[in-house]
Specification:
- The chain has one helix at 2-9, and strands spanning 32-36, 45-51, 60-66, 84-88, 120-125, 134-139, 147-153, 172-177, 182-185, 188-189.
- The protein is mainly β and 195 residues long.
- The two termini are 40 Å apart.
- The chain has one helix and ten strands, in the order αββββββββββ.
- Mean pLDDT is 77; it is low at 191-195.
- The protein folds into two domains: 22-70 and 77-89, no CATH class; 98-195, no CATH class.
- A hairpin with a 7-residue loop joins β6 (134-139) and β7.
Length: 195
């Protein structure tokens, strides 16, 4: 009896690699939404589209658009402009969905993934825009919609080992330990909570 229970109650081994988004699969694109400062009256644009360089290459996500730092007219609260982003859509599409301190059922939560099985975020990126700053954000499921775990995304837009400014960008594998993300609220660091 105990052998049977031990066999069927043991915790399964965690996989060494879990995929969050794989743009090589077309079903990843409907799960993404883009936004920019245009939601606040700004003039930037953002698009994330499937792209294949040639018939024998994998499908990738091409994030592009125009950044415009012109402040929106008549919006005195907006102090900075010129940003764009893409993110996964909330599981609950209701715009009035609220973040709560706890949920009676997991189905009520407004999360997309449970990050507890993850230790490292691995991204494969190509930076075509030198001198731009990029951030990776993980939205929290808390009472505050402005809570974000953030980490700077450092990329090398030029091919490795080349000092030529006309060198072509290359694909880079970037690894970020999840415990290196910093909890922020409205871009201010909150040191009391860690991921």
């Amino acid at each position: 009896m105990f052998k049977f229970l031990r066999k069927h109650l043991t915790v399964p081994e965690r996989p060494s690699r879990l995929s969050i988004l794989n743009f090589a699969k077309p079903d990843a694109f409907p799960r993404i939404q883009t936004t920019s400062d245009s939601t606040l009256g700004g003039y930037s644009t953002a698009y994330l589209e499937p792209y294949r360089a040639s018939a024998d290459t994998n499908l990738v996500g091409h994030f592009h658009g125009n950044l415009n730092q012109t402040l929106p007219k008549g919006e005195t609260k907006v102090k900075q402009s010129g940003w764009a982003m893409f993110k996964t859509k909330n599981r609950i599409q209701d715009p009035n969905a609220q973040f709560k301190p706890f949920y009676l059922f997991k189905s009520q939560a407004n999360f997309w993934w449970d990050w507890s099985p993850f230790e490292v975020l691995h991204m494969r990126v190509m930076n075509l825009t030198p001198n731009r700053k990029f951030m990776v954000n993980i939205q929290t499921d808390t009472m505050s919609r402005t809570d974000l775990y953030q980490h700077r995304l450092f990329t090398n837009p030029l091919s490795s080992g080349s000092s030529d400014s006309n060198a072509s960008p290359v694909w880079e594998n970037i690894f970020i330990n999840l415990n290196e993300f910093v909890l922020t609220n409205r871009r201010h660091r909150s040191s009391s909570i860690s991921i």
